[in-house]
Amino acid sequence: MIHTLSAPVLYSLELTPACNNRCPGCYNVFIDDKQTRRGQLRHRPLNAAQWATVLDQIAPHASRIKLTGGEATLHPDFAAIVRAVADRGIEFSLFTNGRWRQPEILLDFLAAAPQLTGLVISLHGHTAAEHEQFSGVAGSFAETVENIRLTVARGIPVTTSTVLTQANQHALAAIMDLALALGARHVTFNRYLGAPLPSSDLSKQELIRAVNLIDRLKAAGRPAQFGICVPQCLTPNSSSGCLAGVAYATVDPWGNLRPCNHSYLLAGNLLKQSLEAAWHSHEMQAFREGVPAQCHECGVFSACHGGCRAVAMELGLEKDPLIGDAIPLHAAPRLPAPLKLHPDMKPEPRYRLRVEQFGFVLLAGNAVVSLRPDAQPLLAAFNGKTTLRTLAQDFGQPALSLVGTLYQKGLLALPL
Length: 416
What we know:
The protein is an alpha/beta fold. It has 2 domains: 10-290, Aldolase class I (TIM Barrel); 348-413, no CATH class. It has helices spanning 34-37, 48-58, 78-87, 103-111, 128-135, 140-153, 172-182, 204-219, 275-279, 282-288, 293-296, 301-304, 309-315, 376-380, 388-395, 397-408; strands at 10-14, 64-68, 92-96, 116-122, 158-163, 186-190, 224-226, 248-251, 256-258, 268-269, 348-349, 352-356, 359-364, 367-371, 412-413. The strands form 3 sheets. A 10-stranded mixed sheet has the order 7-6-5-4-3-2-1-8-9-10. Strand 3, helix 4 (103-111) and strand 4 form a beta-alpha-beta unit. Helix 15 (388-395) crosses helix 16 (397-408). The longest helix is centred in the middle third of the chain and has 16 residues, at 204-219. 41% of the residues are buried.
């Protein structure tokens, strides 16, 4: 069962539709013509004061915010919006194409923001030809690569983000090599979502091969990860189930709340109504209920969450086109081998605790873990004093399994 939080805790804020790339597979669902792409809009995006009003609504709930666009740095009030986020003490990252008007000034400004967790920078190939086939702008590869170098040199953590395409599907290891050589800490790979792109989109078999390769890189200790869920019934993989409409939401350039940045569904406008009203609207509830019936009977539903509902809606389908037959419980992939933990380790919390009607939610960065009310005594024992040996005696083996899960998600430290 997936528990819906009383309010979202993870947010993408789409500051502007303007962008200096021309990606044929742009994920912005509000992009429908060249005028929109150039920022020539019938309705102006929110200004800094209006974004401050939105932030006042989401700040009591927000664990982390991602600033995005379009290209977020093109918003004329970008600096003021960043200051508004920082003034409210909210951790944030910036998702960017790495093509900036004044790189030195921008990086000086961002490096001074203590709440900044890092930059996610689009890198769609290890050569100019690969990258620019998707970015649509000649010279963008060299500019992006140079600005990744500059960002790392400033001590700002960088994660690269790659959309899987026909042009780069055979170069994923090389893309990772380049990203790591530039100083990136993680390399994120994303399946393409949106209207069919025959010149770029992968077939199911090509995607399966790419997903399997990414997981092999990850198993070899390389910092690869998936940014978008891949249904487990397509091929077993390490991607996480989507939290859109459950713990995560997007606010578009005009203040509309949407389930995610891939969904065109409007649940309400945060300048005109409360966050709670939009989050619990009929539109948002319909999105949550869009899980295919077969997925509720699947043995890996807790890991997959039923694929991507946004792409199903955009394509006019009943389910994510990658979803196949449900996996029987007895055929579900085995869990990874349990961690070997020293019995004298003393779990210390690295999470923020949120109380919900269904129990508790543990939050740290992008990690969200829901627990039942009867977990309270165990959570109280995560005090930096109680050893794993004592936890096993008092709560049994399931407690140690939970400790391992929380440790892997960065929600617990385990000092001796």
